[in-house]
Design a protein that fits this description.
It comes from Fimbriiglobus ruber. 52% of the residues lie in helices and 13% in strands. It is of the alpha/beta class. Among the domains are: 60 residues, no CATH class; 173 residues, no CATH class; 102 residues, no CATH class. Strand 2 and strand 3 form a beta hairpin.
Length: 486
């Protein structure tokens, strides 16, 4: 392109640029003016001081006080259905003066009742004690025990327990409060748990069984004097030695054939496990005549052992002679297969070989018939029962815990397992001491503990002259942690 053409192009572009600028100015004149409210005001330090002064003198709206969900003590006292006076024990009411008023929820006639207790103080600052109330709690012991039974005994969640209390007893209770009440109850019953463990270690017969749980395992120890349930513990020799030391335990241990129980001097292995294995063979091969005959003869031996145990005409020497005859019958039943010493195989044939070897091993170890010669045990409530040849009672005790494991209704923390261990052990042990295991009888017994300062478990410990351990058994099983929600 020549220079002349470039000059003409530049001139034409400049003309178009000037025309475009002129058009922009014309259009801007037709646009509305933007608001400038802030800019129209004076912008200086004095103007800002005047604005702040105007805002400070402007009347403020009164804020409503926030409610945090708590009801004052005065409001609770005003809602109480009645008022009762509580004087210190052994001091005439004329010598006492009123100290304060405490509202307490109680169960009366199937519903929750709020009672205002006027606490009186003696001349030496002796305070009256409200019957059936732990410490400074606002809930009586019957409410706390009912919650413990519903949560850990029945297996209801805290939400459902609160719904039950609202529907049946007209008691509105948040689940955080229910959780706090169980923590308080478990702290009061820690000493009772140690007492139960001491009674268990000196029992004549103990049934033991274990199963998997959300945290490690759950273990049940049942005796004629105590029932101890351990949640969230390891199934090992260390835990077993803490509860039931094989070197010092002199009673009969009824259990399955797990290796952890192999070191006890007097052991009764569960016949139900052996019979179930034999019955399984007949179900897997119903046409096998040998398996049916083996099962029938094994069941006859167990029934004969039970008859010898229950025969009141037999002396100790007579029962010992019967046991020798029963052991000979077991040998006659198993000797052919046992002496054959077949190598391991597959299927029912191998299961049959293992069952025969197990029977012979237990028979030679004197672990099949101790229940025949062991004397009957007497429970604290006066009931007498012979020693069982099966471990079914311990298995039934753990059935609820196994169902809770399958449905996820178990403790999620060691602190929750510790709390469940204390509450379930005490509640289940009370079955042995009460003729009727109801809420009324349990509350009457627990209230008696609080007034006497000593439980029925402690009374039996003193009666048997059994010394208490120097340190806490509970702290040896569980680490000392702050209780938390289960």
């Amino acid at each position: 392109m020549s220079p002349e053409h470039l000059v003409d192009l530049i001139v034409s572009l400049q003309a178009e640029l000037l025309a475009a600028r002129q058009r922009i100015r014309e259009l801007e004149q037709h646009l509305p003016t933007p608001p400038t409210a802030k800019l129209d005001q004076p912008f200086s330090m004095r103007a800002e001081e005047q604005r702040q002064h105007a805002r400070s003198n402007k009347p403020q709206k009164r804020k409503k006080p926030k409610r945090h969900g708590r009801v004052t003590t005065a409001d609770k006292i005003a809602r109480a259905e009645r008022t009762e006076k509580v004087f210190p024990a052994g001091i005439p009411p004329a010598d006492c003066r009123r100290s304060h008023v405490r509202p307490v929820w109680r169960f009366e006639s199937g519903r929750a009742v709020l009672v205002a207790y006027e606490i009186y103080r003696g001349p030496k600052n002796q305070y009256g004690q409200i019957p059936g109330v732990f410490g400074r709690s606002e809930f009586a012991v019957e409410i706390v025990v009912a919650i413990a039974f519903l949560v850990h005994g029945v297996g209801l969640s805290f939400d459902k327990v609160c719904q039950v209390l609202t529907f049946f007893q007209q008691l509105r209770l948040p689940k955080s409060q229910a959780d706090a009440l169980l923590r308080q109850l478990s702290r009061h019953w820690e000493k009772e748990f140690d007492t139960l463990c001491t009674l268990l270690a000196h029992a004549a017969v103990v049934h033991a069984d274990e199963t998997r749980w959300s945290l490690n395992s759950v273990w049940a120890f049942l005796s004629e004097q105590a029932r101890v349930l351990l949640f969230g513990v390891h199934k090992d020799a260390g835990t077993l030695k803490t509860i039931l030391d094989p070197e010092t335990f002199e009673g009969v241990l009824v259990s399955d054939d797990a290796a952890v129980y192999a070191t006890f001097t007097i052991a009764q292995k569960c016949w139900a496990h052996l019979l179930r294995k034999a019955i399984k063979l007949t179900l897997q091969e119903p046409d096998h005549e040998g398996y049916r005959t083996f099962t029938d003869r094994l069941l006859e031996i167990y029934r004969a052992a039970c008859r010898a145990r229950d025969d009141g005409r037999l002396s100790d020497a007579g029962r010992t002679a019967r046991v020798e005859g029963l052991e000979q019958r077991v040998y006659d039943l198993c000797s052919a297969q046992w002496l054959a010493d077949e190598p391991p195989g597959d299927g029912c044939r191998n299961d049959y070989r293992l069952l025969v070897n197990e029977l012979m091993r237990l028979m030679l170890a004197k672990e099949l018939f101790p229940f025949v010669t062991a004397p009957a045990v007497t429970q604290p409530n006066g009931a007498t029962a012979p020693v069982a040849g099966t471990n079914n009672e311990a298995e039934r005790t753990l059935r609820g815990s196994a169902d809770a494991r399958k449905t996820g209704r178990t403790s999620k923390t060691p602190a929750g397992a510790r709390r469940r261990t204390i509450l379930m052990s005490v509640l289940e042990s009370l079955r042995l001491y009460l003729t009727e295991w109801t809420l009324a009888s349990v509350i009457a017994e627990v209230t008696r503990w609080m007034e006497a300062g000593r439980s029925c478990f402690e009374d039996l410990l003193i009666k048997l002259k059994i010394p208490r351990p120097e340190d806490s058994i509970l702290d040896r099983i569980f680490p000392k942690v702050e209780m938390a929600t289960s």
